[in-house]
Design a protein that fits this description.
Chains A, B: GO terms for molecular function: DNA binding. Chains A, B: Keywords: DNA-binding, Transcription, Transcription regulation. Chains A, B: This is HTH hxlR-type domain-containing protein. The structure is a homodimer. The first copy, chain A, is of the alpha+beta class and about 120 residues long. Chain A has a single domain (about 15-120), classed as Winged helix-like DNA-binding domain superfamily/Winged helix DNA-binding domain (Arc Repressor Mutant, subunit A). Helix content of chain A is about 50%, strand content about 10%. Chain A has a two-stranded antiparallel sheet. The longest helix of chain A has 30 residues, at about 90-120. Chain A starts with 20 loop residues before the first strand and ends with a helix. At the A-B interface, β1 and α5 of A face β1 and α5 of B. The structure holds a DNA duplex (20 and 20 nucleotides).
DNA sequence: CAGTATCCAGGAAGATACTG
DNA sequence: CAGTATCTTCCTGGATACTG
């Protein structure tokens, strides 16, 4: 819960850009994973979700709020984001997606390379 | 296999626009479902996938091809698209996503309405 | 039939600067 | 700290017309 988020939890070595499945917008899946073990503050989220601007993260969070997946609570002097029960119910589909990615990542990469090779030839 | 695709299989009553999960781009999930029971031709796909322009469908198909999820075969005088084994392996995650949507659709709609009401007030 | 070509409008997202 | 405001660029995607 209170452990800080690992700055490398979305290391570029796991290039989610290539993922053919997605939850919400570009950042929403990462936000959900960050909230998996308890509430987090805005600037906490910015650490592992590298390269996200305040604007983009705000928009993603607003979208998740609008869909009832994430709650925003303003305490005195700080703001916390947390998963709602509905958001938490997404963890299972998300896990299935991640499992698929692990199982088929090689094939995915190979297919892309074959395609690139064919295009170059 | 040979049965024509139901033109209403993606009826607006199932507004996939609201779906917070997605496979590939805007149309890819629908393409995959269309190919579930066997190969289809370009213009067959355009029937249930309403409102897709040739350009958008082409782009979606090219993306799926590039990722090795769909194969394109030019027979004499016709072109057929089919799922590859890799593409077929996506059917399970896709089913999980659809099951989630069925289970939580009400909550999702309610959350949106509550949000809209709050914004209006 | 199965696309390609061209034009255009709207949204996504980065950079940067600023605020209660 | 938790954003908002502005500007700009990129990209998506729709409309339309055309082609082998």
């Amino acid at each position: 819960m209170r452990a800080p988020l690992d700055p490398d939890m979305f290391d570029p070595l796991c290039p989610s850009e290539l993922m053919p499945m997605r939850i919400g917008d570009k950042w929403a899946g990462m936000v959900i994973r960050c909230l998996e073990h308890g509430p987090r503050r805005f600037s906490e989220l910015r650490v592992p979700i590298r390269g996200v601007t305040a604007k983009a993260l705000t928009k993603s969070l607003r979208g998740l709020e609008r869909d009832g997946l994430v709650s925003r609570t303003a305490h005195t002097g700080r703001v916390e984001y947390d998963l709602t029960p509905l958001g938490r119910s997404l963890l299972h589909p998300l896990a299935v997606m991640c499992a698929w990615a692990q199982d088929h990542w090689e094939e995915l990469i190979d297919a892309r390379e074959a395609q690139t090779a064919a295009a170059t030839a």
